[in-house]
């Protein structure tokens, strides 16, 4: 493991309508020493201009899409956006690609077919457009997608996983690919309220088969997925507590082989407010 990067994953950056407030938050994260800002590209046809707005408004911090859906944005659009960003800000934009979920692509599951083959074809098109593999990263959970991440991109960006998955991902990627794991956290030392906040987040993800099937590979069962997740599952996937306790949970992923952890602070589903106090407190113990 050559790096130890502390990054941010936060829906605020796409959801915030005030460009000035978004850029101000990004500048503060840059000054605190965070390495990269991740956020979803949403599910529109184009890569949102917000990624470029943050790049233009900052000096050093990286920006990454977590993720651009391969069912929504075309390879041509993704390649053009990434190449333009690379020319303007060399080395700072990373195109995160993902196969998303059937329920988000087509409600009756008629369009979501063979996501692995779709990703391979998408990468072929990016190659044809001249987009270098090191400028893209794949949202990967299972073994086949992790191997594809290793062979056709800069690495993998797993989401909503325990540290055991990070260890498996590192073994699959080998030592030379970037492993940037998203980890959601709750800064609250009360176990009742902290887990309640965590379950506002886990409930939605535990309804998506891609995530539950992945967790089953590590021994979790339907009983763990009920009612927003068992205490044991919540504690394994969502570090909570004081900044020091949260940092200890994040450290498990570094020890398991992550080069980078993209921290998502959960604040009760409020994507309109930037949790600046939490990121300041975490910077003090992690950076």
TrEMBL record:
Gene Ontology MF terms: oxidoreductase activity, acting on paired donors, with incorporation or reduction of molecular oxygen
GO CC term, one of those recorded: cytosol
Domain Luciferase-like: 18-128
InterPro entries xrefs: Bact_Lucif_Oxidored, Lucif-like_OxRdatse_MSMEG_4141, Luciferase-like_dom, Luciferase-like_sf
Pfam families attached to this UniProt entry: Bac_luciferase
Tree of life domain: Bacteria
PANTHER family assigned to the protein according to its UniProt record, in alphabetical order: CONSERVED PROTEIN (PTHR30137:SF18), LUCIFERASE-LIKE MONOOXYGENASE (PTHR30137)
UniProt-recorded name of the protein: F420-dependent oxidoreductase
């Amino acid at each position: 493991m050559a790096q130890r990067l502390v990054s941010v994953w936060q829906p605020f950056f796409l959801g915030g309508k005030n460009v000035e407030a978004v850029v101000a938050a990004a500048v503060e994260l840059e000054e605190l020493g965070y390495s990269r800002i991740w956020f979803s590209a949403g599910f529109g046809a184009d890569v949102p201009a917000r990624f470029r707005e943050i790049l233009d408004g900052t000096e050093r911090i990286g920006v990454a899409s977590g993720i651009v859906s391969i069912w929504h944005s075309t390879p041509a659009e993704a390649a053009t956006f990434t190449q333009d960003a690379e020319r303007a800000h060399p080395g700072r934009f990373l195109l995160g690609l993902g196969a998303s979920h059937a329920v988000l692509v087509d409600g009756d599951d008629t369009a979501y077919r063979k996501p692995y083959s779709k990703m391979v074809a998408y990468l072929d098109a990016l190659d044809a457009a001249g987009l270098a593999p090191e400028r893209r990263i794949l949202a990967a959970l299972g073994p086949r997608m992790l191997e594809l991440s290793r062979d056709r991109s800069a690495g993998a960006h797993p989401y909503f996983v325990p540290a055991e998955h990070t260890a498996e991902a590192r073994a699959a990627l080998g030592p030379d690919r970037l492993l940037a794991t998203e980890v959601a956290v709750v800064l609250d030392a009360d176990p009742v309220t902290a887990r309640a906040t965590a379950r506002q987040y886990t409930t939605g993800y535990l309804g998506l088969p891609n995530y539950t099937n992945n967790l089953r590979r590590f021994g979790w069962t339907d009983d763990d997925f009920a009612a927003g997740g068992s205490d044991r599952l919540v504690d394994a996937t969502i570090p909570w507590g004081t900044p020091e306790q949260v940092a200890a949970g994040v450290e498990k992923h570094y020890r398991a082989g992550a080069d980078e952890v993209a921290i998502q602070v959960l604040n009760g589903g409020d994507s309109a407010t930037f949790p600046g106090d939490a990121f300041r407190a975490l910077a003090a113990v992690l950076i």
